[in-house]
User: What shape does this take?
Amino acid sequence: MKSDSPLFDKIRVTATKDRRKKKPSAGPKCQWSGCEKEGAHRAPRGRGNEKEYWRFCLEHVRQYNQNYNFFAGMNHDDVLKYQKDALTGHRPTWKMGTGKRGKPDLGGAFDPLHMFEEIGGRAGPEQQKQSEQRTVRNVERKHLETLGLEVGVTKVEVKTRFKELVKKHHPDANGGDKSSEDRLVEIIQSYNYLKSVGLG
Ligand SMILES: [Zn+2]
Assistant: This one.
C-alpha cells in the first residue's frame, strides 16, 4: 500500500484520534469550505504534495477520501471551489452567509413580494395571519361606518344604532322615498355582516 493512499491515512488518523480522546475543540478548524467543525483528521493533498495535508472533520475527511482520485492533483483553489459549489448543489445561487442571520443576501435584487424574505423566515405564517386580520378589520370598519359607528363599539351599541337607522330610513317614514330605501338596504347589509362577525 502506498504511504500516501487515503485508506492508509484514514487508519493513521483513527489511531491519532484515539490517542487524544475527548480533547476539547481547540485544534485547527476543518478546512472544508463552510465547515466550522474541528479539523481533527488529516488528508493528503495529492500526488506531488505527499507531505501536505488538509485538516478535515470526520464527515469531510470521509467525503474527501471517497473523492480522493477526483481531488488529487487539483490545486487548493480548485478544491475549495468544488466544495463551495457542492454546498449549493452545484447551482448558482445567492451568496451564502453574507446577509443578516436568517436572511439571504439578495445582492440588491428586486423582491417586491418579499418571497426571499419569506424563505428567510421574516414573513412567515404569523405575518400572513396578521395581514388577513387587517383585511377583516378593514371590512368591519367599512360596515361600521355605514352605520355611522367606529371600531371598538359594543354589540349593544351596534344593535341600538341599527334600530334607530331602520326607523329613520324606512320608506314608510319617508313618504316612500326611493333613495331612503337604497340607504336602508345598505344599512341592513352592513348590519348583517357585523352580526356574522359577532357584532350585533
Ligand atoms: Zn468539516
Summary: Residues 131-196 form a domain with the Helix Hairpins fold (CATH 1.10.287.110). Strands lie at 41-44, 53-56. Confidence is low (pLDDT under 50) at residues 92-106, 115-122.
